[in-house]
Amino acid sequence: MQAFSPIPATIGGLLTGFGTRIGNGCTSGHGVCGLARPSTRALVAVAVFFPVAMAVVAISGGA
Amino acid sequence: MSTDRQSFAYLATAAVAGGLFGIGWGLAGICPGPAISLIAFMPQNLLVFLVAMFAGSFAGGFVLKWTARRPAIA
Questions:
Q1: Can you tell me the distance from the alpha carbon of B16 to that of A22, in angstroms, rounded to the nearest whole number?
Q2: pLDDT by residue (tens digit) across A7-57?
Q3: Is B28 in contact with A9 (CB distance < 8 Å)?
C-alpha cells in the first residue's frame, strides 16, 4: 500500500476538508450524486475541481 | 435545471470551494471517500491526511457560521 508524504497530506487534507465543507460536496457528493440529479451547482463544482486537480498533479508530478 | 433560486454567489461559492478542493485533491491524491475507506488498509501517514481533512472541515464550518448562510439548495 502506497504511503502518503506528510507535507502534501497535511496541506492537501486541510484544503480538501475546507473546500468540501464550503462547497457542500466532494467527488462523491457533487460528482456522483450531484451530476446524476442533475444539479447546476454540482456541475460547476465538478467543472472546477476536476481540471484543477489534474493540473496540480501534472505540475507536482503526482502525489 | 432550474435557475430561479440559484444566485451567482451560490454558484461562485461552489466554484471557489471546488478550486480549493481540487488543489487539495491533487496534492494528497485522495478525496474524502477513499480517505475513509483506506482506513481498512491504513497506509503510512493516512491519519495525517484524515486529521488535516477534519481540521479543514471544522474551519470551513466556522467560516460558514461567520458568513451569511444562503438557503441550502442541493
A1: 9
A2: 999 999 999 999 999 999 999 999 999 999 989 999 999 999 999 999 999
A3: yes
CB-based contact B35:B46 (threshold 8 Å): yes
Q: Is the ipTM of this complex over 0.85?
A: yes
The domain spans of chain B are 31-67
| Residues in chain B within 8 Å Cβ distance of A36 | none
State residue B58 phi and psi, 5-degree precision: -65, -40
Which residue in A50, A7, A9, A10 sits closest to A27, CA to CA? A50
pTM, whole model, 2 decimals? 0.85
Interface of A with B in 34-63 (CB under 8 A): 34, 37-42, 44-57, 60, 62-63
